[in-house]
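Convert to structure. Protein one:
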Amino acid sequence: MRTTFIFAACAALLTSAAIASTGSANEDAKAAAMAKCMADTSALGAQDAEEGCTCFVDRLSDEEASAYAQITDWDRDATPSMKQAGAACFPELQ
């Protein structure tokens, strides 16, 4: 009985550590996407880059945010959903 309880407690700790790690990775992807968006759109003359980038990053999935942070050619590499989010959040850049 005691061994079962100890095993269950260890499993619960490992599960919560894995969930926390995933949450941190997702936050890192969103932060990297936000930083790239701020740099890119400020260089393009966006009127309110911070507000637009918040809108843009919020519309991306974690996977898309991670991919966006790595792209070097918007026209070639951005997914259709990235382009839709960009158009919605930065109408002045269209």
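Protein two, convert as well:
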Amino acid sequence: MSALPGADHWNLEPITSTRQISGRVVRIECEPSEVWFLKKIGAASEPALHEGMAREYRVLELLSRSGVRVALPRPTMGGDMLASASGGLYALYAGLTGAHLDVWSAERPEREAYRLGHAIGRLHQAMPALTAELADAFPQSNLQADVRRAADQLAGTGLPDPAGRFAVIQAEYDAAMAATYPDLPRHLIHRDAHPSNIIFDAAGEAGFLDFELLRVECRLFDPCYCSTALLAERFDDPGARRSWTALFGQVIAGYASACPLMDAEHRALRYLPWAIQLIFAGWWARQGDLERARSSLEALYWLYDHALPESC
């Protein structure tokens, strides 16, 4: 147990194996055939994390009751949602059966992209009711403010800006979205719906992981985020970049099969991927990782050059 900070707050014996999944997550196997994920949520000096975890648990509980497969956190033996150990706060999540979709390696990548979009749409079908009950407990995001903040974070970094393209893109984005953004449907969204956070069981049923970033925002953010994550996976491959527009169209088609798009959402499809790449670039710049910020800007410039029509 000493190698697993906080694990002694749960009765996990007997543990048969452990594997580090990332810097914050350890996969734990126990008898009989149980799988758990021990995740560091943050520092023990951040008491607000307890409230955040309670909110997340409430959403996951309601989603589970509505038939959405989610990884529920397990309370400690003392009934808490987080355990304090080694200066950190830890949560224990149940494992979900299934696997991620490897869209790029699939025999029919567009079909797999459609499945991702449809899964997000099914998740979103449950969100309006949760939003009506819980919206006041979660951050109310404003994409326009996030984009402006990211642009400010990039100012003065010296990152490449060929022919002043950044200002041109930002001006076009602002002009288009100023009228469109207020009309976009909003509710609680996952906010981190990249393909690795969506797993499918043997029956094809989707499950969702990592709801830490839950917030109220335009619902179109989630399928567009999933799509730009696919682009990022293979951005250095010119052939994959050429194929991405079709994948984006299929993610959106899958999403619309569960959540039909409104006119304002069709108008916004061209610009949401720009916003997401800009927000990523600003975030990486704020972290001091200018190389990743540069990569995000390169993806932004590519998206601008290969702008989608206003409807997919």
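The mean pLDDT is 93. The chain has two domains: 7-94, 99-305.
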